[in-house]
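User: quick one, sequence for these tokens?
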């Protein structure tokens, strides 16, 4: 047990305050820069006293980058990824823990190894699949000779093609599988007493009813923690949405910030870029604030 003393409390709060200043310092500088005009924001050094053009800059950033529809696209994208990861991870972990079949342990480790393969590593084959979801099946038909046989017999060329570029489904589907979520759920399910499973079986509950009525309610804090992490992760994605969405109507808010990047040859409009950055930061910040209690409980709670 750590003894509570005034001196120890003082240094503890001092360390927390220093950490708060370090974390909030960049955000404060962004907010101050967003309140200046173009002349003041380009001064070296920039004044740390807030200016009077904050709302003007926010309005300019909103209209220049057309952030209204882009924020909606980001909410659909991040929300879809978060919900998909929570559902897929829960089902996968349920299968690994409560069903007995050959190769179950090997399958878990194969899933776990995918942690070493982030999206940036597999982005080329993932893009190829999204460009034509049916391409693996087309390749299988070509290798087995079925497509050649069908063409010889009927004269019809088999060409399977289903592209998901510039669509919310194409953005979300490749990102819904996660080894992190599967591991989190698996470790939690392993702590469920066997007596609870036996009681549910004696009451006539099948696998699906046990999963929905018992496991999922017990996993609410885990779902909140995982959903929050994955929402923030998906919201901050830049490379994947930039690659998949080429039409402005389907772009996300993060990728659309490039419209506010200062152009070459002119005076950089950093105040507009900083105002747009603040707008894009608000939704994930609101999610963290609203889900903070559930998020912390899902990560550190030990009672089941």
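Assistant:
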């Amino acid at each position: 047990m750590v003894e509570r003393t005034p001196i120890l409390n003082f240094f503890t709060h001092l360390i927390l305050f220093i950490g708060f200043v370090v974390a909030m310092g960049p955000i404060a500088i962004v907010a101050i820069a967003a309140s200046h005009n173009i002349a003041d924001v380009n001064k070296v050094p920039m004044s740390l006293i807030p200016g009077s053009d904050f709302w003007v800059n926010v309005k300019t950033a909103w209209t220049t980058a057309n952030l209204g529809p882009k924020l909606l696209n980001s909410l659909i994208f991040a929300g879809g990824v978060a919900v998909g990861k929570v559902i897929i991870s829960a089902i996968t972990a349920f299968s690994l823990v409560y069903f007995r079949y050959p190769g179950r342990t090997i399958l878990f480790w194969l899933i776990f190894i995918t942690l070493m393969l982030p999206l940036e590593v597999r982005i080329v084959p993932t893009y190829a699949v999204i460009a034509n979801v049916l391409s693996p099946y087309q390749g299988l038909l070509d290798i087995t000779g079925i497509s050649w046989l069908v063409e010889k017999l009927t004269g019809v060329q088999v060409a399977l093609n289903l592209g998901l570029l510039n669509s919310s489904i194409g953005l979300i589907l490749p990102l819904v599988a996660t080894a992190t979520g599967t591991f989190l759920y698996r470790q939690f399910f392993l702590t469920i007493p066997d007596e609870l499973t036996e009681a549910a079986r004696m009451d006539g509950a099948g696998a699906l009813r046990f999963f929905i009525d018992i496991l999922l309610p017990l996993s609410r804090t885990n779902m909140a923690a995982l959903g929050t992490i994955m929402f923030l992760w998906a919201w901050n994605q830049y490379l994947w949405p930039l690659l998949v969405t080429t039409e402005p109507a389907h772009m996300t808010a993060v990728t659309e910030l490039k419209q506010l990047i200062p152009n070459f040859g002119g005076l950089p409009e950093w105040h507009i870029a900083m105002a747009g950055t603040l707008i894009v930061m608000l939704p994930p910040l609101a999610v963290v604030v609203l889900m903070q209690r559930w998020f912390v409980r899902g990560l550190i709670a030990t009672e089941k």
